[in-house]
Design brief:
Number of helices: 11
Order of helices and strands: HHEHEEEEEHHEHEEEEHHHHH
Largest sheet: 7 strands, mixed
Distance between the termini: 49 Å
Strand order of the largest sheet: 5-2-1-6-7-11-10
Number of strands: 11
Length: about 250
């Protein structure tokens, strides 16, 4: 029987050496918490996991229970830490798209409200910005998300910013989906370990997006394609908007 340590690669000599080499430049490993839950969107947290794994950080997958959850769709993930076990000195706390049911979940919002005031940096990618907003972390803050969520942000007390660039306000970094997770994480890493180190990590993962179709934003895609895309998610976006409003109201 293969032990969990083998499955995670933690006792593979090659992995041990790689981690040790990465940590030589750090006085102590960074502590990075990544929120996972049933139905989370893997692509919105992959950038954070990738960037900070290469930086040899301690990565915690955080949820209510240490029981297998399935990301959207067919992405089994084992949480490694519960809310109660989460250290209060996190360097980074990251959240991506999660279902509307989680956006208004009181226990989840209480966790983010608490840790949002303790973690050094917060990353909200895509619909993850709504989690931060519903937890009260975006009041008076400039923030962004995907094009469907940006119009909802003022209802969270945020100053909405359109576009795909990372928006930084204090220690909160928000971004659009997918590659936004990489962009925000590299910028946070720069603050934590300096520009040269962040540049090396960007090179190590050869992060150089070159989308093949050039339709990755409403501006690039044009009005017709954007309308089709928005119609496909209109009902879901209504659910997200209401869930965020409910969460913010219950959490006040």
């Amino acid at each position: 029987m293969i032990r969990n340590e083998m499955l995670y690669g933690k006792n593979m000599p090659s992995i041990i050496k790689l981690v040790e080499e990465g940590r030589k430049q750090q006085s102590k490993p960074l502590k990075v918490g990544i929120f996972v839950c049933p139905g989370f969107m893997p692509m919105d947290i992959n950038g954070t996991q990738s960037v900070f794994t290469i930086a040899s950080a301690e990565i915690y997958f955080i949820w209510k229970k240490k029981e297998l959850v399935e990301g959207y769709i067919g992405w089994p993930t084992m949480p490694t830490m519960t809310f109660d076990e989460c250290p209060e000195d996190l360097d980074v706390l990251a959240v991506g798209m999660v279902p509307p049911e989680i956006v208004e979940d009181e226990e989840t919002l209480a966790f983010f409200a608490k840790m949002g005031n303790k973690a050094r940096f917060i990353i909200g990618t895509c619909y993850g910005s709504l989690v931060l907003g519903a937890a009260g972390l975006l009041k008076g803050k400039r923030a962004t998300s995907n094009s469907n969520v940006v119009p909802m942000l003022p209802d969270m007390g945020a100053i909405a910013v359109e576009g795909s660039d990372v928006v930084i306000d204090g220690n909160i970094y928000t971004s659009g989906p997918a590659t936004g997770s990489f962009d925000a994480s590299l910028l946070v890493l720069e603050q934590l370990l300096g520009t040269p180190f962040a540049q090396l990590v960007e090179l190590a993962i050869e992060y150089d997006p070159r989308p093949p179709f050039g339709t990755g934003s409403p501006t690039l895609a044009g009005a017709e394609m954007t309308a089709i895309s928005q119609s496909l998610t209109a009902n879901l976006n209504d659910q997200f908007h209401q869930a965020a409003l409910n969460g913010l109201k219950k959490h006040r």
